[in-house]
Design brief:
Ribosomal Protein S5, domain 2; Alpha-Beta Plaits; 2 domains; 6-stranded mixed sheet; 4-stranded antiparallel sheet; 11 helices; 13 strands; 41% helix; 21% strand; globular
């Protein structure tokens, strides 16, 4: 792939001198959904699929961007001293966003650059192609412009870029998992404190299978921000009696005694999901550490039910995939992963059963939904890095 990218880079930007190569992974969240912006614990891991980037510094102030995933967009150009969000610049707005966020904290970079990228994460799948791109650009800025920060700070700046420049009120999980990913480990992350620990993923003869609904969605145009607002509303009701900063600070038993303070039925449902999902995440880590894959799988199933019934972010495509998946031989658990409203499911499947799983789920899903899903058997990889 890198050889092909290098050829395209030379074709678009001229000679092959001084090209630097980078990689930034996608991520999947094993459990702990829609609680990263509620101060809860999440359990993501970086993947071996992601976004490759090629970079070369220029002597002027221009940034030239080209994506092999969006060839019809051509080369997108902007000036580092004068740029704004522009819808027609599409994916390159994420490049701008990170430069802007770094600039807010550390000042403008002194030169422009040429940048080519290619991602093998399906766009709109919920595997964080946007955060992968953000951390790719962050890694480039750190390495090539000698910005002396660690990757946790890079994750925080990338989140700022998405929140303030792109306009999506995402939590820190995606950026953190991609920045700090470690091969064969997931990360238990407290999104309130950013305390984290690596947890080895030892699944034996079980594999992680990601199934993409192939339903088109855009996170910034979904109901993501609405859900966040509903959680904030629930928190404000509880704050009348308890001095807390986020919903995940309270246990499920405490919540049962406090939920009568919430005067909105919808907000009660959202908050119930958050509190119980936070506890499920901690239980899931304990199950994995005890090598109890059956319990781990059951917690995934409970997570999906909660996201469907209480948080209402699944939809017919994701629910159909999970329902079919759980009827297949060798499946320990299945749930939606990511923001929802389309995107992907994650299933734990015994390796010997994967061929029949893919055949049966693919066929039954197409019969009901009208088009085929896509399947990815994924490995847990490392974080953003220079190659």
């Amino acid at each position: 792939m890198l050889e092909k990218m290098r050829k395209v880079f030379i074709e678009k930007f001229g000679n092959g001198d001084s090209i630097q190569e980078f990689f930034s992974p996608g991520r999947v969240n094993l459990i702990g959904e829609h609680i990263d912006y509620n101060g809860g614990c999440v359990f993501p891991c970086a993947l071996t699929i992601g976004t490759y980037g090629m970079f070369r510094k220029r002597q002027d102030k221009k940034v030239l961007c080209y994506s092999m995933n969006f060839e019809n967009k051509g080369i997108i150009e902007f000036d580092i001293e004068n740029f704004t969000y522009d819808k027609k610049d599409d994916w390159a707005n994420y490049v701008k966003a990170v430069i802007w966020a770094f600039g807010e904290k550390y000042g403008l970079i002194e030169n422009g650059f040429e940048f080519l990228c290619f991602g093998n994460i399906p766009n709109g799948s919920g595997l964080s192609s946007s955060a992968s791109l953000e951390l790719l650009v962050s890694r480039i800025l750190i390495d090539e412009f000698n910005i002396n920060i660690d990757m946790i700070e890079a994750a925080v700046l990338s989140q700022l870029a998405e929140n303030k420049f792109i306009g999506v009120n995402c939590g820190i999980m995606d950026q953190f998992a991609i920045a700090m990913g470690k091969e064969k480990n997931a990360i238990l992350l407290n999104t309130d404190t950013l305390d984290y620990k690596y947890v080895p993923i030892n699944l034996g003869n079980v594999k992680i299978v990601i199934t993409n609904t192939n339903k088109e969605r855009k996170l910034s145009e979904s109901k993501y921000n609405e859900r966040r607002s509903e959680c904030e509303k629930a928190l404000n009701y509880i704050k009348k009696e308890r001095n807390i900063n986020n919903l995940s600070e309270i246990t499920s038993s405490e919540f049962e005694n406090l939920k009568n303070l919430i005067e909105d039925e919808t907000c009660i449902k959202r908050a119930t999901h958050v509190v119980y999902e936070n506890e499920r995440t901690k239980k899931a880590v304990e199950a994995l550490e005890k090598n109890n894959l059956k319990e781990f799988g059951e917690l995934l199933n409970q997570s999906h039910s909660s996201l469907r019934d209480l948080y209402e972010v699944t939809g017919i495509e994701l629910d159909t995939l999970v329902e079919i998946s759980l009827k297949q031989k060798g499946v320990l658990g299945s749930r939606m992963t990511g923001a929802g409203f389309g995107g992907c499911t994650i299933s734990l499947v015994e390796e010997k059963c994967i061929p029949s799983f893919i055949e049966n789920v693919g066929k039954k899903y197409k019969n009901k939904i009208g088009y085929e899903p896509s399947f990815y058997i994924v490995e847990v990889g490392s974080g953003s890095r220079k190659l």
